[in-house]
Design a protein that fits this description.
Elements (H helix, E strand, L loop, with lengths): L3 H9 L6 H24 L12 E11 L5 E5 L2 E5 L7 H15 L8 E6 L4 E5 L4 E4 L5 H8 L4
Antiparallel strand pairs: 1-2, 1-4, 2-3, 4-5, 5-6
Keywords: Membrane, Transmembrane, Transmembrane helix
Organism: Histidinibacterium lentulum
Protein name: Photosynthetic complex assembly protein
Length: 152
């Protein structure tokens, strides 16, 4: 003899996710796959992909750790900016990224990086020792301005 609760749960397990939602989910997945496949096979131009513009201005600096979580930017041995400066904390973020990248690529020493302004106005940080480029877009105006000040 089954109780009313057991009888109710037997049918409820089948109806936890309505069938039309499962069909809709797989239909949406199939459509997305079809659209991406068509775009790739037809050779459609990539939209929203950053196009690197030519460099119009450049400055070579060395970024060095200075104490706990602080970084300084040097040019010819002279400090030109530091992460402890007002609105300069982003230097430490980029410094840590570059340090990590250099460890992974086993770069010896501390070669300089290039801070560049591109023809389209974008600011970028280039590390020639690892062929690494950080395009400073989407990081916030204060963070981008910190590196733009190095070029002004």
């Amino acid at each position: 003899m089954t109780t009313q609760l057991q009888h109710q749960m037997r049918y409820r397990d089948r109806d936890m996710i309505p069938r039309f939602l499962v069909i809709g989910m797989f239909t949406l997945m199939g459509l997305a796959l079809a659209i991406v496949s068509f775009a790739q096979l037809s050779g459609a131009a990539h939209v929203g992909v950053l196009q690197e513009a030519p460099v119009v201005e450049s400055r070579s600096v060395t970024i060095e750790p200075s104490g706990m979580n602080n970084y300084v930017l040097l040019e010819n041995g002279e400090v030109i900016a530091a992460s402890t400066d007002e609105k300069g904390g982003f230097y430490a973020v980029i410094g840590k990224v570059i340090d990590r990248r250099r460890i992974v690529h086993q770069v010896a020493g501390n070669p300089p990086i290039d801070v560049v302004r591109r023809e389209n106005g974008n600011i970028a940080v280039l590390d020639p020792s690892t062929s690494f480029t950080i395009e400073l877009i989407g990081y916030g105006k204060d963070n981008i301005a910190a590196f733009a000040r190095l070029l002004d």
